[in-house]
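Archive entry. Fields below.
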Amino acid sequence: MKTRPELDLVDAPVPSKKELDAASAAIRALVGGSIDRFDNEALLALALGDDVADEAILDEERVDANLLRHALDGQGEHPLAELASALRVATGSKEVDELTHERLVRRALHERENRAAPRRYWPIASAIVALAAGIALLIGNVTADRSEREVAASLPRLRAAAATVALIPSRSTESLFDASTAFGARGGESARVGRIVASRASDFRANRFARWGVR
Amino acid sequence: MRVTSRLTLICALVLTACKAQPSPDPALVAAGCHEDAPAVDETLLAFLSKARAVHLQVDLAEADAKIDEAVRLLDGLVRPPAPGGENASPEVAEVLADSLARLAELEGQRGNFEAARVLVRRGLGIAKGRTQFRGRLFEVLGSVEKRSFDALRERRDDEGATAAKLRSLAALKEAVSIQEDVIDRALGTAPSP
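PREDICTED_STRUCTURE:
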């Protein structure tokens, strides 16, 4: 099935350690600095060509990913292209200017073609590849002047929307305690503070997920 | 799940952070949350965790009757600056108030009544709403004044003892009044503080 334009992505050079570090830094910046150690190892193993299988990637998927990349380059259209450009402008990040994101994408999509490797890393690794590819496409050094002009107008709206993410606010802890029982003049402080910590630790986790966009 | 689908999902997740609309939790609204209140964050959690650790240390010090050590530990916790400074979050303010109450009680045990009163006054300046934390501060003050009363009476300072007794009764009366308000609010028969 070759109904869509074929795009050349195969003969990309292997990304350097510096490039991989930059990609990891970019991902950490977007997801809040916390990538599971196993996921990170899987990402690196995949990018380095270690034991990760890739038989499941279909030609259609490759073509679709390539279309997205070319749309970001201002060539053609893709449903996610405008969104990706908007987010890239919104981040304003130049940190990954030197990152050859195309290589990462190519590497992620094609490196494993001739490899008969174990599948145990596949579910996680494939998700990480998609994450790396998506983020590289989003914040990479894409030459899309037209898209930038278009999204510049919507930047204030995007930033305003980001500022309205519903987070659990700080508030009185009184509801954590039985109103019918006075604290008393002595004792119980450690238990009270412990209860407060437990409650707010839960809120803090929820806020982190909310900031990541996980609901 | 195919790669295309994963990419779409990931982008959707990223977008969710940007597109999420404010949807106040009714429980939070009922708890008196303000729209401009800061979110529960890492700094708040760090302070609360530190406070818990200090109070556990104080528990151990008190168990060994090391009151001076307990006072030293608590003094380190309540000494400024606290996160947020003058605009500390409610959690910080309430934990500080509770810690000041404990410290005042310990100073009262040591016979440092004036130091205890100063700590209670500071706590009342922090816990301004009629909450259990403010109520506890008055309860501690009542206890401190009761100790003062006992000490003065032992020294046969009848006038001073009488004054301390009156202060103790007034503080305890206020503690009871605040606690009644807390109960009324919990039962839905009184406005929030």
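CURATOR_NOTE: The radius of gyration of chain B is 23 Å.
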